[in-house]
Amino acid sequence: MAVCENCGNDYDMAFEVHAQGAVHTFDSFECAIHVMAPVCEHCGTKVIGHGVQSGERWYCCAHCARQEGTKGLVDRVTTGTTA
Q1: Do 78 and 60 contact (CB within 8 A), yes or no?
Q2: Out of the domains of life, which is the source (predicted)?
Q3: CB-neighbour burial class of residue 46 (10 A; exposed 0-12, middle 13-18, buried 19+)
C-alpha cells in the first residue's frame, strides 16, 4: 500500500502522478488537485480545467486575468469559419 502525500491515508489503490521530474502519490483525484492544481491569481479558485496563463501567472478564466490587468486573453476564440 502507498500513503497519500496530502491526507496521509494508507490506501491499496493509491496512484502516482509524475510531473516535472517529481513523483507524487495520492489516494484520490481530490487530494491530487489540492496539492498540484495551480491557484487563480485573482479569485483563489483551483484551476482544474484549462484555465489561462499570462507569463508565470495562472487564472481560472479570462475575466479574472483581465481583473488583474492582463490584456488579450479570451475564453473563446472565433475563427470566422463554420464547420
Answers
A1: no
A2: Bacteria
A3: middle
Residue 41, C-alpha cell as written in the block = 491569481
Give the helix/strand (H/E) hosting 29. Answer: helix 29-36
Polymer length of the chain? 83
State the cell numbers at 27: 489516494
pTM above 0.90, yes or no: no
Task: Give, for all 83 residues of the chain, the pLDDT tens digit.
Answer: 899 999 999 999 999 999 999 999 999 999 999 999 999 999 999 999 889 999 999 999 999 999 999 988 877 656 555 54
Using CA atoms, how far apart are residues 40 and 31, in angstroms rounded to an integer? Answer: 18
DSSP string, 53-76: EETTEEESSHHHHHHTT--S--S-
- Judge residue 69's burial from the number of C-beta atoms within 10 Å of its C-beta, 0-12 exposed, 13-18 middle, 19 or more buried: exposed
